[in-house]
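Model: You mentioned two targets. I'll fold them one after the other.
Researcher: Yes, keep them separate.
Model: Target one:
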Amino acid sequence: MPLKLSLKPNEKIVLNGAVIQNGDRRTTMLLQNKASVLREKDIMQAEDANTPARRIYFPVMMMYLAGADTAEIYNEFALRMTEFMSVVTHVQALEDCVTISRDVMSGEYYKALSRCRKLMEFESERLSNGSQRVSDSSKAGRNAA
């Protein structure tokens, strides 16, 4: 079954490691065989892997794009996943971590990336709730003074 990609004007994708940029008009591509494809919005630069969940996403993305010889990248993934799971207590997040690990072990990197995005959303919600609590408590402190 072919994969149909609709690309926005000037949108970039990575196709089997090659960066391809669309022209100035919307276009549709059909990929007739299996290939590693990432849209521009799903590509993370190394410097953007700056939170625990993003440090999990990045090596999974690299394994997906590399295709072969991923032992060193896998070790980085395993380390980051272990660190993350050692501090998280939320049951659904832990279940997602186990599923991501299974996907990675079976070479289903694209599925793992999708689940990593869920993990990044979870992390983002927790971080924004934490900063909300801090700002709420600092307001309460000012009001009490």
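Model: Target two:
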Amino acid sequence: MMKNDDQRGFDQLFEMYHKKIYFFCIKNGLNDEDSQEIVQEVFVKFWGSRKNLDPSKNIQSYLYTIAKNTMLDEFKRRIKQKAAEDYQLRLLQPENHTQNSVNYNELQEIIAETLRNLPEKRRLVFELSRYRGFSNKEIAIEMGISVKTVEAHLTLALQSFRTVFKRAEIIGITGLLYSVFCI
């Protein structure tokens, strides 16, 4: 029905799912205004792809997939924007490049040493999560372990990093470390 530009059918679909998609966005951390924009974008994308719809596929799943991907795109855009703003602010501040380089190299060595000291499975779980961006479920499937085991490995790995960072008195860059290892 959508392939034939059925506006009434589309309106019914919108009425049926727009609130669900809105609350899905809210649940995933967006505010009211951003959630409303995502909902609008989801249905614009849906309408734009209506000619390619497979009638045997679940429309609700398709809408949620569009919503998830649109939110991820928005989050990526925000991260890039924040990184650009931070970079511009750093350009305005005088820096001690030699000290920064020494600190960076020291931090890299501490991270590498901590990773080497983790048990093999814990290290692999951590690397898949933090370096390759796998979800806990994807890691569980990849390694043939439960999601709870993945969560336990990550918790223990993060505790190891926190302990090492405290011992090394790397307090000044706690925010950076938190964002890299704890998100």
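Researcher: Noted. Anything on target two?
Model: The chain has two domains: 2-85, 97-181.
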